[in-house]
Amino acid sequence: MEKKERAKQAGPGAGKGGPVGPLFLVGLGLCDEQDVSARSIELLRTCTGLFAESYTNLMREGTLRRLEEKIGRKIKPLGREEVESEKIILDACSLGPTALLVPGDPMTATTHSSLITAAKEKGIEAHILHASSIFTAAPGAAGLQIYKMGKTATITYWRKNYEPAAFIDIVAENLARGAHTLCLLDIDPEMGCMKPSQALEIMEKAQEKRKKENPALAPVLSPATPLFVLWHVGWPDQKIWAGKKEHYPYSGRPQKEPGSGPAASAPSREPDGPAVILIAGKMHFAEEENWKSLSR
Amino acid sequence: MEKKERAKQAGPGAGKGGPVGPLFLVGLGLCDEQDVSARSIELLRTCTGLFAESYTNLMREGTLRRLEEKIGRKIKPLGREEVESEKIILDACSLGPTALLVPGDPMTATTHSSLITAAKEKGIEAHILHASSIFTAAPGAAGLQIYKMGKTATITYWRKNYEPAAFIDIVAENLARGAHTLCLLDIDPEMGCMKPSQALEIMEKAQEKRKKENPALAPVLSPATPLFVLWHVGWPDQKIWAGKKEHYPYSGRPQKEPGSGPAASAPSREPDGPAVILIAGKMHFAEEENWKSLSR
Questions:
Q1: B81 and B57 in contact (C-beta within 8 Å)?
Q2: What is the pLDDT of residues A147-181, one digit of tens each?
Q3: Cα–Cα distances in Å, from A159 out to A163, A169, A191, A289, B167?
Q4: Contacts of residue B38, Cβ cutoff 8 Å, sequence gap at least 6
Q5: Burial status of residue A254 (CB atoms within 10 A of its CB: 0-12, 13-18, 19 or more)
Q6: Which of A114, A116, A135 faces B146 most closely, judged by CB atoms?
Q7: In a designed cystine with A14, which of A7, A253, B183, B249 is the match (CB 3.0 to 4.6 A)?
Q8: Hey, what domains does chain A have and what are their CATH numbers?
């Protein structure tokens, strides 16, 4: 159907800025098109506007193409600025039901909340279709209790004159309360997915910066801090490393000798792709047992 | 295929306590069988043992029946004790691939972590298939930033000589840090889903108890505390109320006159079914705008 015809069908206000919609924010889940719910697949088939953002997370290669085949429709990928300006998406809403596909559970990326507000202000209804998310999947895969997760820390790449370190205070506060911390690692269009070894290095630097600003403060992390490092959570090739921070095998320091302790069986190089770090707070007996069993 | 034949196919140890499996914990998501991922549906069709627990959350009426039709297989519902004893499920693993279906994202219920540990101890591989969860969906629907969620509070029914009040300290700690709190409300086989009005009443009592034990402590909640109350999150009939605590329209106090403020348009009685309360901490401008727009 041509755009003009669709606009006619959608009613007199359509295509002229009158409210039509609705707008759907549809979660893509953790891995690929196999994580999109049946409810969402049905809905996507009825939308006149179909967009996807892929900058808040990375999907597996070919996800959108296979999803297009599944729903028999084209999906237009949008860059960060195109999503944040809201114009393209809201203009499409004036022609009929429109969906923005978002990796994970769609509202965990804060920018999408303002899109919903903007739609509502125009008189366009907005709905969310949920999917699996790193926020519950990572603690679940590590065997940490979701109830004991504190605020989330986001670790971004340090650049010249841009060295954000506020995340270390979040970790410190969580640890003081015995809470666990999910650390999300930067995904940069140029630098790619931050590796856990890079994140741990930035954590060290942030800790030093904090100490410098306030020498009275105790260090946040110690060599013995229990960590979980997870790659490709919810993907068929998910990988977990668990152990004390000092034993993380890809930290630039010399590799451990085989058989000398945790992670001796780890692959020779640090895996690529999306990863997160979980910093364990005060672990319950069952959580600690699980950490130990993964450490072996 | 008969059990004996399956056991034969599965290898010499099968049916005699030897490790077979794998065990899959499969998320049912927020609402019904339409939230189960395509990846999980494919997998369920290959399992020789299929179980479901339905005590950590409530699914929509008929969910399991419709899921059975979709996969062409029978699913056996298990009570809490049957799941927690682990025997039925681990015995089934000795005959082949076995799945336990769990509402939401499966590992958010802490009891299932010990099932995975027990499976691994028997040499049975365990995998998680993730799905949508109240932990990300509720803040998302309320427009609260997931990064600012503190520890989760669970409010259970108070009974004679059993008045758990530790949750109020969690709320207090979160508020002191500016963090938001997700309050999960009890689901009891006899009492049913706790209503938000009941939860708010228990919150008041817990606050009084806390004050009594330590008179120096400031009250945790005030009449002006901003709340979000959400029913049926992720269901097609999801409902949200937002406003100050004192304006919650179903608190047993006389109902507000129509037109006298927030929630005047609310239905005459408190909705039934699963509900959660979000207690907002320090709201960002966009979060507050959203709260205000929902309050109108």
A1: no
A2: 999 999 999 999 999 999 999 999 999 999 999 99
A3: 6, 20, 11, 39, 41
A4: A33, A34, A35, A36, A38, A41
A5: exposed
A6: A135
A7: A7
A8: 20-132 (3.40.1010.10), 135-295 (3.30.950.10)
